[in-house]
Specification:
The protein is an alpha+beta fold and 180 residues long. The chain is globular. It is 45% helix and 20% strand. α4 runs antiparallel to α5.
Length: 180
C-alpha cells in the first residue's frame, strides 16, 4: 500500500492555523520581487536594514492587500510572523485602536526591551505550534498579546511619528480616554 504522507504537528500547525514564524538572515531571505500580500506580516528588524529603510529594533506591519518588496542588507536579521487572512480576521479585534491608524503608521522604532518581548511572543507561538498537544487558545492568546503590544507602541509613538503636531496629541488623548 502507498505510504501515507507524514503530517507532523509543525506541518499541520503552519497550514491549518495559517501562522508561520521565521528568523531570517539576509542570506536566506526570499522576497526579491514585489509581492502582493494575502496575509498579515509583522517584521521585527534586529540588526542591519533593508530596502524599506528599517533600522535595528524597528517593527514593520504589512496588511493583506499591500505590496511587499524587501532586499535585505548583508548584516540584517529579521524575525517575522505571517498570519493568514482567515486567522488575522479572527484576531483582528485585538488591536486596541482602529486598523486605519495602524495602517497609517505601520513602522515604529521600539525600545530594545519591548522589541525582545515581542520576539519572545513570536517564538512562543512557534514553540506552541510544535507541541504535539499545542493549544489553539494559547496561540490566539499570544497573538492577542502581540496585537495589544503593537497598539500600545503605536499610541506611545504617535507624537514622534507626526513631529509632535497638536492634532496628533489631541487624537492620542482622545484614544486614551475612549479606551478606558
Amino acid at each position: 500500500p502507498p505510504k501515507e504522507k507524514d503530517t507532523t504537528v509543525k506541518e499541520v500547525s503552519e497550514i491549518s492555523l495559517g501562522i508561520i514564524y521565521r528568523a531570517i538572515t539576509a542570506a536566506t531571505y526570499e522576497c526579491h520581487a514585489p509581492t502582493k500580500l494575502n496575509y498579515f506580516l509583522l517584521i521585527l528588524s534586529e540588526g542591519g536594514g533593508h530596502s524599506n529603510q528599517m533600522t535595528p529594533f524597528q517593527m514593520q506591519l504589512f496588511f493583506p492587500g499591500q505590496e511587499l518588496h524587501c532586499k535585505l542588507e548583508a548584516t540584517t536579521v529579521v524575525h517575522e510572523i505571517s498570519i493568514s487572512l482567515e486567522t488575522f480576521n479572527a484576531v483582528l479585534a485585538n488591536f486596541k485602536y482602529p486598523l486605519s491608524l495602524h495602517k497609517k503608521y505601520p513602522s515604529i522604532s521600539l525600545h530594545k526591551e519591548t522589541f525582545f518581548k515581542l520576539i519572545n511572543e513570536l517564538k512562543s507561538i512557534h514553540l506552541e505550534m510544535k507541541l504535539k498537544n499545542g493549544s489553539l487558545e494559547v496561540i490566539h492568546s499570544r497573538l492577542r498579546i502581540i496585537l495589544l503590544m503593537i497598539s500600545r507602541e503605536l499610541i506611545k509613538a504617535l507624537p514622534q511619528l507626526n513631529g509632535g503636531h497638536n492634532q496628533i496629541l489631541q487624537l492620542k488623548k482622545f484614544i486614551e480616554m475612549v479606551g478606558k
